[in-house]
Each structure stands twice: as C-alpha cells, then as structure tokens.
Amino acid sequence: MVEIIPKLEKKVPLWQNILLYFCLALLIGMLSSFFVLNKEKTKSSQSLDNLEKTLFQEKTSEERALEKNVLETKEKINNFSFLFENRKFSSLLFPFFEKNCHPEVFFSRFSLNVPEKKLTLAGKSKSFLSLEQQLFILRKENLIKEINLTELSLDKEGNVNFSLEISLSPKLFLQNL
Fold this sequence. Notes:
By secondary structure, this protein is an alpha+beta fold.
C-alpha cells in the first residue's frame, strides 16, 4: 500500500556525523602518512647504498698519500728511538778527565775515535814527575784498558810535551752522569 502521508526522515544524531568525519580524516591521514613514509624509506635506502659504496671503494690518492706520509713519519720516529736508546755518551769523557787530571798537566789536543774506542791526547806537563803521576792516575782507572806514550819532548821552558794514545772501555760511554 501506498502511503499518502509522508513520513519524516529520521535525523542522524550529531555524534554519528562527528564520528564519520573523524574516521574519514583518520583514513586520509593514514594514507598520506603511508606514502610519505614509503618515500622517506626509499631515500634512506639510497643514502645507505651510497655510504656502503663509499666505504668499500678503493682509497683515494689523497688518502694513499696521507697514509704514506704517516708511515714514513712512524719509521723516522722508530729510527730515532733506536738511535737514542743506543747512543754513546762521548761527552762523559770530559767529567772523567776533569776528575782524573793532575793539576800540573795540561791537555791541548783531544781526538776521539768512537768506533775503535781510542783517544789521542796531546799535552804539556811541568815535569817528568807530574807526567808519571798523571799516567799512574790514569792506569788506576778501570775504564781505561791501555795507555801508550807515543811522543815525548822538552820545550825551551823545560816543560815536557807528550802525546798519549788511550784505549777506552765501552763502559765509559754507557755511564750516566
């Protein structure tokens, strides 16, 4: 049967309209977030691939030159360290002779051959006695192996000119002051 009197349409409650619009906005937000995050993921993957390629690439010429320079410097430091640890203290001769020099004996020439550990001294003494005492003082020292009197002469004033060749012990070069 046909109704002649129209019926009033049921009105949708306000809370349902709000819920509908909220759900539509949420759906649109999720879809847009999906596409944005997918695009960011693709960018990150490309960036990561580029970084991995860079890491596994062969070294650049600048890096090779820098590495070569570092290795050369390291070798120089190692060589210097070796030389410094194995140095000979030839300067220790001066305090040694200062301590063991007779007051009337004067040394005028000094020549040191470190590899052979030979010392050549030329000097002057006031007398044969002071030269003999100087030789006695030097022979007492255990750091001197052998002493040879190579030249001996008198000058016009009566002083004794002499030349000594001394074989030194290696211990003399290794002592600490």
